[in-house]
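Annotated sample (chain length 154).
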Amino acid sequence: MRYAILAAGLAVAFGLSACDSSKTSATTAAAPTEPAAPKYSGRSQQMYQGQEMIEKVDSASIKVGKGGTLEMEAKGSVPMAGYKKAGFLPRINPEAPKDGVYEVDAVAEKPASGTAASTPIEIKDVWDHYPADSLKGIKVISKTNSVVAMLPGK
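Output written by the structure step:
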């Protein structure tokens, strides 16, 4: 009798597991596939309240400025007019990137309200204590894409 109960329990367990996997595969097959998000080596820093990444970055450039600072500039777009206090947030890296390209987020302070219309934005910022010994370029990251800017001569 004990073996009969164990056999019945085992049959029920196999039956339920088969039902669950068929439901999962059916819903997975019906779900639309989205492109995988790109992998970045660093993680984003904490943003201030109201800040968010810009929608798209079109171009970026960097150069060593006066006093040994890194002058960064990017042009892109935001979903509506009124974004202000645009800047760059260097990503937190566990170690220096092997290729020397450091990642930064392009961020701006979102307006309280506005009409949805793609609006150009220009970001200029200075990185005071950048890793001069290992930096060869930066990757400017937005919500939808990224652009790499290399130091001249590197």
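Annotation: The longest strand covers residues 116-127.
Annotation: DSSP finds one helix and eight strands in the chain.
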